[in-house]
Here is the input.
Amino acid sequence: MRARRVIAAASVAALGVLSLAACGRSAPDVAAYVGDTTYSLDRVDAIYADVQAKYGETVRQQAVQAGATPSPEQLRSKITRQDVVDLLVSLDLGKRVVAAKNVQVPDEITPQQLEQNLRVPATTEYATLWGEWIDMLQVLNQQLPPAELSDDSLMAVYNALAKAGAIDGGMSVADVRKAFGDGGFVRSATALSAALEAEADRVDVSINPRYRAVGVPSVVSNGQSLIFYSLPFINEDGPVTDISTPEPVRSTADPDAGPGAGPDAGPGTEGTAS
Here is the structure.
């Protein structure tokens, strides 16, 4: 898939460095604090388990109809708990930015519209959250003034797309600039990142170290399908929080870990954000 074809219809993405504050909030059963909202490990596990159960059942039913027997690997969705944390944190910050701007977010994107490309059943909470996130991204992209097109922001988006297999890798900055044209979607992505970063600093965000590789859920269109990927909020070597990790961090060989995903959390029971 060539660069021009992918970028011509690119949707909203975001990038940047998210400053995460600690302030003594370190409960080991918490995945993330965003202002006065707490996202428990149980809440993350419940969304993740919902995806895996419904995805596996869908694959199993399709295999039965085709007279085949799926392998355990085929029954497992590529969605990770890190993906769930990324979505919950980004949605929370985005809602706060939208509220501060006093703008309305229309309910336009349905889980059914995302099901095929997201490869997650529309009946899952994860698919519903993605629909809310894309609606919000579209509004913020219209509200925020475009940022400067720097080499760093340009290559951050390019590298994320290349990692997702959506564009050819190994291109130089000059080649990427040529392929991206005026880079309008990168300017919008950078502006969104800055807005989310400022909101995170304002409300005080703390992330459990096992999920410290926080990324912003992003999507592009190649004109035929949607491509979902993640852009980093923070570098793994950058600032994190003082939230303790009660269990050893899993290795990259863990089946729950997706390509480029950070360490994943262990299983748990359903919880709620408060």
Q: What stands out?
A: The CA atoms of residues 22 and 242 lie 6 Å apart.
